[in-house]
Amino acid sequence: MNRQIALLVTLVSGVLMVLSGFLIPTQSWAEDVAEWFNVLASIAFVLGAANLAKIHLSKISSRDEGWGFSAVTLIAFVATLAIGFLKIGVAPLETAPLVSMSGEKDGEGSAFWWLYTFVMSPITATMFSLLAFYVASAAFRAFRAKNVEATLLLVAAFIVLLGRTFAGVVLTGWIPDSLSFLRLENLSTIIFEVFASAGNRAIIIGIALGVAATSLKIILGIDRSYMGSGD
Amino acid sequence: MSSQSFIEKLDAIDRRWIFLLMALSVGIPIFVIGITGTRFPESPTPTSLATFETIEALPEGARVLMSFDYEPASAGELQPMATAFVRHLAHKKAKIYCQTLWAAATPLIEQTLRTCVIAQHPEWIYGEHFVNMGYQSGNEGVMKVILTDYKQSFPNDYRGTPAAEIPMLADIVNTSSFDAIIVVSAGYPGSKEWVQYVVSPTLTSEKPTKLVAGVTGVSAPQLVPYFPTQLKGMLAAIKGAAEYEFLVNQAVEARNPGVKIPAQFMDAQRRMAPQLFGHLLMVGLILVGNTIFFARRRAARLALA
Question: Which residues of B touch A164 (CB under 8 A)?
Fold first, then answer.
């Protein structure tokens, strides 16, 4: 029965969203459905937090490999949550100087702000920066002209890598204006706006058709994978 | 040592040497630029130029919604764009409405407003000239709602002040109330979703939504097909940021002759030198890798013969 209710909600919501594009009176109903989605998205945060706690607590209790990392994750999670909720170190608002928790939780100088600025930001930026090292290593070991397609990719990569920096200007700046399209920075733009754009248009059209087909299957209850295993 | 054994040794090189080379090729230029302040001249590409012209064409007092859809991980690439956008808007005396669909971005909005608005235009009043509407969960669900009713998704600002008490929100009904929308995005939800859910439904209307975007290098190719119809301008990666920053600085200097541009407003241009040497190293590594590949293939053929 529960599953049938979920399927009915999906059917009604999906059909309403489609109709709202064509029938003006149904637009306000579709807006309500969109608002339900936003409420559900907020609840998903709570579910996500519960899931995170469940997985890592289970790892710690069974002493799985790397359980120490799970402990660090949980400690960091609980500490951040507590600091945010309790507004530790938050300066009170000028309008309410006697109310210690009246300020913003991540206002400059608060403990939450400190965590964000000096822990979260550097850690996430470091993780992202590591890509440069792995890409360099991969470029040396894997980016090889093994066939025609790989060679074309290699030539395009060379043009873009050089054309997107000042090296392009230095290397091909001497080319006369009448042949300026041959300058690396212009070739890079041509690759970007002609070849990459054409390829991406094809991909976008393919994805759009796929999304339409999948959406129809979900609305009609043919695809029920979103309700979990067993369907 | 024969050339063959040298090639084999080179092929089996410990990747930590490559890591070291990358660290040096990025680190040394950062150090040198930090001391000398040198930067390379920029010649703007059509997408960056279109971005600048779209913002430049806005009248004084134009209402511009800016969505900071990224987090600190990609701030290295996107923060200079956000800074240049807000600075340009402030310079144009536009009304700036900030928001985000990424939970970790609200402090980035505050930081950008502090740097570009509060510090540069102390006479500006919060709620009249600029506002931070904060974060709203729901991804494209939020976009669908603000397309018809902005305040339904953002009933309060970041500080909890009701929308009804914020003067600059009085005449905001939906996304069509804005003269332009700027999205700085690192992924999902981002510029692509803004095009699909906010711009596309208005394309055939009397007032199509003007959207410009600043995106990371990896997501730029996915957005090029939308330029120039759905996207009026696009900044692609730190190169796009540097070009736009250069144009904004030029415009500021033209209107205020003799003004000194602070270093914090040249961040993107200063990051082009590490990018140049990083790219040169990549090109060098690809060339060496392919030399090894062809030498080994030739040796294998000779051995078979």
Answer: 237, 239, 275, 279
Q: Residue B99 has what DSSP assignment?
A: E
Q: Of B107, B159, B224, which is closest to A196 when you measure between CB atoms?
A: B224
Distance CA B28, CA B36 (A): 12
User: Smallest CA–CA separation between A101 and chain B, in Å?
Assistant: 13
Does residue B161 contact residue B127 with C-beta atoms inside 8 Å?
yes
On the CB side of B267, CA atoms within 13 Å amount to 16
Top residue of B282, B288, B294 to mutate, by most chain A CBs within 10 Å, is B282
What pLDDT is attached to residue A230? 54
CATH value of B46-269 in 3.40.50, 1.10.357, 2.60.40, 1.10.8: 3.40.50
pLDDT in tens, B67-84: 999 999 999 999 999 999
C-alpha span between A70 and A84 (Å, rounded): 21
| Set of chain B residues whose Cβ sits within 8 Å of the Cβ of A127 | 73
Q: What is the mean pLDDT of residues B198-225?
A: 93
pLDDT digits (tens, 9 = 90+) for B108-153: 999 999 999 999 999 999 999 999 999 999 899 899 999 989 999 9
Q: Which residue of A has its CA nearest to B138?
A: A38
